[in-house]
Design goal:
It is built from 12 helices and 17 strands. It is an alpha/beta fold. The chain has 2 domains: about 170 residues, Medium-chain alcohol dehydrogenases, catalytic domain (Quinone Oxidoreductase, Chain A, domain 1), CATH 3.90.180.10; about 140 residues, NAD(P)-binding Rossmann-like Domain (Rossmann fold, 3-Layer(aba) Sandwich). It is globular. Bound molecules: zinc ion (2 copies).
């Protein structure tokens, strides 16, 4: 089979590999679609670890095509999304359903082979812990591949306490900022305010229904956000760009007792100075979110087909042979999300 491998920073290639055979408790999935994550690009840039030689790809959907012994409840031909976390299932985080914080967690696409290959071997732990999720018949697999980034967004919205009528400020209108707009709207957030310096992305945010879209290079963000939120500031602020200089200004946009979520990962070995009294006197919640729980994957799969514009999030499509170009298109920031699609699997 054809498979992409990560050889080291800046080095991704497509090679011939043996088609995996599922052992006890394992499955093999014929891949339909795998989208590229900002974290894959951080690995490519050398800012985040992945095992050299691993096949990347953790935003994955496909069809079960071989089943190992000892697997029940899954049939050949089943359309599935894989929640790519291998977790222990018994630590205090797993017990309360926070599998994404399991300290023994391993992730497909970084530590174990992921979905930028024609076939994917699904480890027994993934099968056993319910991390193989059925895709509704009405949801195309290339959209189902977005379950992972959309579930990460739902995790962010949950952590920020977004409910119907919550005001939401989103810093950045890249793919993840725009997913905050779409998923936030589906969750009832209003108004949703977006800050984005790139005009083309501001246009998309407007077209996809943001209530207010601001250019941070020409606008007084604090004044504009207060004006749009009755003078208080936003209930929640999601920072979807990993830029250290954006952190302190984001703190100024939240209302007292509101929540700021560091959604993006940041380049390593840099710090941010801020006045702790802003947090103290404002009783501001400062949090981070990374990945999502198994239940957030399940909820997202139920939502996706009802999220307008979700089919426009992927702008760049490649076949497996041209998969490495998915990386270069993200590095040059052309379009929104990149996806590797496998012809004839749907
Ligand atoms: Zn991802
Ligand atoms: Zn655990």
């Amino acid at each position: 089979m054809r498979a992409t491998i990560f050889e080291g920073p800046g080095q991704v290639s497509v090679v011939e590999k043996p088609k995996p055979a599922p052992g006890h408790g394992e499955l093999r999935v014929r891949m339909a679609a795998a989208s590229l994550c900002a974290s894959d690009v951080r690995v490519y840039r050398g800012e985040k670890y992945a095992k050299p030689g691993v096949t990347p790809g953790h935003e994955i959907a496909g069809i079960v095509d071989a089943i190992g012994e000892g697997v029940d409840g899954i049939t050949e031909g089943q359309r599935v999304v894989i929640c790519p976390m291998v977790v222990c299932g018994k630590c205090r985080f797993c017990i309360v359903g926070r599998q994404n914080r399991c300290e023994k967690r391993k992730t497909m696409g970084y530590d174990l082979d992921g979905g930028f290959a024609e076939y994917l071997l699904v480890p027994a732990e993934i099968v056993r812990t319910g991390h193989v999720l059925t895709v509704p018949n009405t949801l195309p697999l290339d959209i189902a591949a977005l379950t992972e980034p959309a579930a990460c967004t739902l995790s962010s919205l949950d952590l920020m306490g977004i409910a119907a009528g919550s005001s939401l400020m989103v810093i950045g209108a890249g793919p993840m900022g725009l997913l905050h707009l779409l998923m936030g709207r589906a969750a009832g957030a209003s108004p949703i305010i977006i800050s984005e310096p790139v005009a083309e992305r501001r246009e998309i945010a407007k077209r996809w229904g943001a209530d207010l879209v601001l250019d941070p290079t020409t606008t007084d963000l604090v004044a504009a956000v207060k004006d749009a939120t009755g003078g208080y500031g936003a209930d929640a602020v999601a920072l979807t760009v990993g830029v250290h200089d954006a952190v302190v200004p984001a703190i100024g946009l939240v209302r007292n007792q509101g929540t700021i979520n560091m959604f993006a990962g940041f380049p390593p070995k840099q710090t941010v100075p801020f006045d702790p009294n802003v947090i103290h006197y404002g009783e501001i919640n400062l949090t981070g979110s990374q990945n999502a729980t198994t239940d957030q994957y399940r909820r997202t799969l139920g939502m996706l087909e009802h999220v307008p514009h979700i089919d426009e999030v992927v702008t760049n499509r490649y076949d497996i042979e041209h998969g490495p170009e998915a990386y270069s298109s993200r590095v040059s920031m052309s379009g929104l999300k990149s996806l590797v699609a496998f012809a004839g699997v749907e």
